[in-house]
Write a structure and sequence with these properties.
Layout (H helix, E strand, L loop, with lengths): L2 H4 L18 H12 L6 E5 L6 H14 L19 H7 L6 E4 L3 E2 L4 E2 L5 H12 L8 E6 L6 H12 L5 E7 L7 H5 L2 E4 L5 H8 L7 H11 L3 H9 L1 H15 L5 H10 L6 H24 L5 H19 L3 H17 L1
Parallel strand pairs: 1-6, 1-7, 2-5, 5-6
Antiparallel strand pairs: 3-4
């Protein structure tokens, strides 16, 4: 089995396969205008928070340029949209287009995890790629996702290509933390800042990513701060699944029994569960805050408000002092159970 087949990033939601884009019309218009001018800059830096669609826009631009290698043939198009059934889109989705290369952290199948950096050997592949003639006689495009994953050696190797770009070459650097990039790399790129999406746009993106309850979609969109990628994590992570289990238990009984609390806490304490633990805590605090608001509006006292304050303080303290996550969750669920029984 190939590494790609095991890579957890591979699937229908990979930006390489997504042709729809929400919330970045102004950025798209800027790129289209630049291309039509006939003076397309060779290096672009798409900057902004993680999960808002930067890589989706990068592949969308690549599809458009590889479909219309001559800017004079773009006609009256008002967007960079290329349908998924188009031959170019098919080849890009399957990593089969000869004139597109992507640089990202490799997946180590033996260790079953992503490597920590984009290695210099990966960038050397890009150097060889740009040393060849374009397979279809048009543009040669390199997408780097994410650029801050480059180590010092690979960043300098990329810089050499950026300093002397071949004709009709395009580099699209996706970055969640553009300040971490080499100043010399930033200076050779036009920066395009992308903003978080509006809540309605985030929900619209999530609705294309699977079946979810409306209340779960709304909760994830609110918590994600305009990042559909983050919202999807909130919907599908192990932390979210443990939280849904917790909610089901709370809906069936006045208190959660000790064995159930231990089961949830044990499930979230592993070394590889740090992100899921954080998601569970975030969802739990939002849930308790909602209970507190409803309780206050109904004139039912401040037990949930006190629980929210106590649980929030406990989680912040545990994070700051690296305290036992298992005990933190047990304490939080006990406090919430007491507030519900009050």
């Amino acid at each position: 089995m190939s590494d790609d087949a095991e890579d957890p990033r591979e699937g229908p939601l990979h930006p390489r396969r997504r042709t729809d884009l929400k919330g970045h019309q102004a950025a798209e218009e800027t790129l289209l205008r630049q291309y039509r001018s006939g003076r397309m800059h060779h290096g672009w830096l798409f900057a902004g928070p993680r999960g808002i669609g930067k890589a989706t826009l990068a592949y969308r631009l690549a599809r458009f340029l590889l479909s219309f290698p001559d800017p004079r043939l773009t006609g009256e198009r008002t967007s960079l949209y290329i349908p998924a059934e188009a031959p170019v889109a098919h080849r890009i989705a399957s990593r089969g287009h000869a004139d597109l290369i992507s640089l990202e952290r490799a997946y180590d199948a033996k260790a079953e995890r992503l490597k920590s950096e984009i290695a210099v050997d990966d960038v050397r592949k890009a150097s060889a790629f740009f040393g060849r003639t374009a397979g279809e006689g048009g543009w040669r495009i390199c997408i780097v996702d994410a650029a801050e994953d480059l180590n010092t050696e690979s960043a300098n190797a990329l810089l050499k290509i950026l300093e002397e770009p071949p004709a009709r070459s395009l580099f699209i650097l996706v970055s969640h933390q553009a300040g971490r990039l080499l100043p010399t790399i930033r200076s050779r790129c036009l920066r395009l800042d992308l903003s978080p999406l509006r809540e309605a746009e985030t929900i619209a993106v999530l609705e294309t990513m699977g079946e979810h309850k409306p209340e779960d979609l709304n909760r994830a969109a609110q918590l994600s701060k305009g990042s559909p990628g983050r919202a999807l994590e909130l919907l599908t992570s192990q932390g979210a699944k443990y939280f849904d289990l917790f909610r089901q238990m709370m809906s069936r009984a006045q208190r959660i029994d000790l064995a159930a609390k231990i089961s949830i806490a044990d499930g979230l304490q592993g070394r590889d569960m740090a992100e899921d633990y954080a998601i569970f805590c975030e969802l739990l605090l939002t849930h308790v805050a909602d209970l507190a608001r409803r309780s206050a509006l109904a004139g039912e006292g401040a037990a949930f408000a006190r629980a929210h304050e106590e649980i929030g303080h406990s989680i912040r303290l545990a994070n700051a002092l690296n305290l036992d996550r298992r005990q933190t969750i047990l304490d939080a669920l006990t406090v919430l159970g007491s507030a519900k029984a009050a």
